[in-house]
């Protein structure tokens, strides 16, 4: 990037439509013949949280959404976006303007889903972490996780090891290990986050 180029602003973009997603959760739950309490038990969350999500309240984390989509036996994209509209893009394309965004935590960590709706077994996102933020509620399971730091500095702890990563640095590790990401700096950090494995496949 040359000196005259203005970088894309960091921070939250278009927020996830929680009301529409809540309506989809309710419809999927009812289609499966589940009560709110039964879905809560299957997903390992509280019935109160299910009620909040269905009413479009709160801001569920990606981990909660993963639990819900497994319990409802649908893909994450179906839960977040619904069925693709007729004449939409091919299933292998995700346009920049159509990225779903999740805002996580009190500091508003932004997770933009880059994976096209039709992908299987792999998910990747563009994550923006404000200064002082931390991601420790991670999905763990079989497979691999990887990433590339685009801007700023992040601290990555995997099991007992830890490393500080700057712009251009990349990483990869087994997804079944405990891991935490932190931005201890004074400016936002942005990185591509990749998850691959059976945990991220669409149910048959």
From TrEMBL:
It comes from Methylobacterium crusticola. The keyword DNA-binding applies. InterPro entries: Cro/C1-type_HTH, Cupin_2, Lambda_DNA-bd_dom_sf, RmlC-like_jellyroll, RmlC_Cupin_sf, TransReg_Diox_bact_type. Residues 25-79 form the HTH cro/C1-type domain. PROSITE patterns: HTH_CROC1 (PS50943). The keyword DNA-binding applies. Keywords: DNA-binding. Signal peptide: none annotated. Gene3D superfamilies: Jelly Rolls, lambda repressor-like DNA-binding domains. It comes from the Bacteria. This is HTH cro/C1-type domain-containing protein. Pfam families: Cupin_2, HTH_31.
């Amino acid at each position: 990037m040359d000196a005259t180029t203005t970088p894309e602003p960091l921070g939250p973009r278009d927020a996830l439509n929680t009301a529409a997603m809540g309506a989809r959760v309710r419809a999927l739950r009812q289609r499966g013949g589940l009560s709110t309490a039964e879905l809560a038990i299957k997903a390992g969350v509280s019935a109160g949280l299910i009620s909040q999500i269905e009413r479009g309240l709160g801001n569920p984390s990606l981990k909660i959404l993963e639990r819900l989509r497994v319990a409802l036996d649908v893909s994450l994209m179906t839960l977040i976006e619904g069925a693709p509209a007729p004449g939409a893009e091919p299933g292998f394309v995700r346009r920049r303007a159509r990225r779903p965004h999740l805002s996580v935590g009190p500091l508003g960590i932004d997770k933009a889903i880059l994976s096209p709706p039709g992908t299987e077994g792999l998910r990747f996102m563009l994550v923006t972490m404000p200064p002082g933020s931390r991601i420790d509620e991670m999905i763990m399971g079989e497979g691999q996780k990887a990433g590339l730091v685009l801007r700023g500095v992040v601290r990555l702890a995997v099991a007992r090891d830890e490393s500080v990563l700057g712009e251009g640095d990349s990483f990869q590790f087994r997804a079944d290990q405990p891991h935490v990401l932190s931005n201890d700096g004074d400016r936002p950090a942005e990185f591509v986050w990749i998850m691959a494995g059976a945990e991220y496949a669409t149910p048959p």
